[in-house]
Amino acid sequence: MTTHRNLIAYIFCILVQLFLSAHYVVAKGIIENVDPISFAAVRGIIGGFLILAFNWKKLFSVVRYNYGKFLMVVLIGILSFGLNQIFFMKGLKLSTPMHAALFSNSIPLVSSMMAMAFLGEERNPRKVLGLILGYATLIFYIFGSGDTSFDGALKGDIYIMINVFLFSAGMVWSKNIYQYIPASVVSGGMLFFGGIFLSSLSFSHIPELIEYTLLSKQNVSLMLFEVVFSTAVVYLLNLKSLEMLDVSKTFIFSYLQVPITALIGLVFFSKLPALSILPTSIVLFLSVYLVLWRKKRA
User: What confidence category does residue 248 fall into, taking pLDDT thresholds of 50, 70 and 90?
Assistant: First the structure.
């Protein structure tokens, strides 16, 4: 039963990485034309509302019997989606989808350190070696790319890294309230209240976003993907997998974003990835193996 449960969680993790990799490419195109914060606000509000609407009975039960704990969801939403998206969207606008995917590879390292410090997650040399190997590979690729201008991609990369810390902190914090609040209510509340926070900072730009969305069927389709799949579905599957796996195991799948993002660029934009992508991906997959692999018990 445990093996079957883990398999489901792994499938959820892989789907999350597929949607997130596409999100980097789609969102990059959208924020070139609209205000990034208003775009993030709409994603959060609508995506969160969809999750909460489909789980309204659980929501009412939580508000009625665990009101104090629900306030924690509001705070986590502001941290792991509100502030998180401010840095991510600004970073993505300056950087590239590939760099966004690469820096997301540091999520396992950050989340694991936080989980070891605050959740008592198991430490072992193999897991630490895998995380260090992945992070070292990431740093080598970024600073070996040749673009180290602080006013350009490097500044964007720093913003994305701050986003990684905020996201990881929110996910680790949310794991402590699962015994009180279902994952669906946690994910929906995080998105909705994080989106409300963002809308207070960008309300005047939302009409422009709506106008841009209605310009074409393609824009409508892309916005639906962003709201439903890259937001609502991603957060829900992420938190569902956290119910079944250790924090580090959940986020180690972010290493899949590099080859997936490269494949999207090649198939849809005929953009060949840098030659260094292949060895980078191989080493990153090795780090995934080091973290996930466990000795079989006799």
Answer: low
